[in-house]
Amino acid sequence: MISAGIDLGSGFSKALIYRDDGQVLARAIAKTKADFDTGAREVLDDALAQAGLSQSDIAYVCTTGLGRYAVTFRDIQVTEITAAARGAWTLFNQAQFVLDLGAQSTRAIRLRDNGKVKEFQTNEKCAAGGGAFLVRAAKYLEVPLDSLGKLSSDAKASQPISSVCAVLAETEIINHVSENIPIGDIARGMHESMAERAMGLLKKVGLNGPLCLVGGVALQSGFVEACRKKFGVELLIPQHSQYAAALGAAVLGMQRAKKRLADAAAS
Q: Which residues span the domain enclosing 39?
């Protein structure tokens, strides 16, 4: 049996094809479109093509993310928090906490023993803690986004970013550039600032055990290093961290598909 999870985030849309033996058959990613339904179909078609499958091979489609309600061919939708939690726990069943950093929001989640959400805190008031902030910062620093992590890791020092507002933080960055502060030092300061904000949310859910980092920002090595220094707990980093919510959606979809099959057999 095969299910599909589609995560329609504010920055990128991800699709993941999942088989009932736990195997991930394909992953696909694309920039999120204003037309969520069309974007979901396209990213799912990409994943299906990679897997050599067609839409008719999918037993269940579960959507999550900002555009989850707009997908007309879904079987069910779940919240980003539920999907991220289940995806992280599927990858690391020793995880007790999850930190999900997307383009616009940061979510701190405490898990139950079965991977369900026990409590959570989210900060969506300001983009300074999300991936979109790094995208704009890379533009001001005139470097590729993918290079920020290494620049931060290789930096000799850290240039603090004190503003909690994304707009003011960007102004700070521009000022640092004009003062000829090394780009790596600025990048490290950004990552440390984001880790500090995330720690504030994690404290509210009682961080005291293994933490799984998911979302696109977890691909930034400099941010991961900042988290290791700041959090004081074991960090669990998935290889495909940006697909964790799509995985969680696919896993939850598979559970529903099996239940539907069992109900049909019983009747």
A: 1-79+241-267
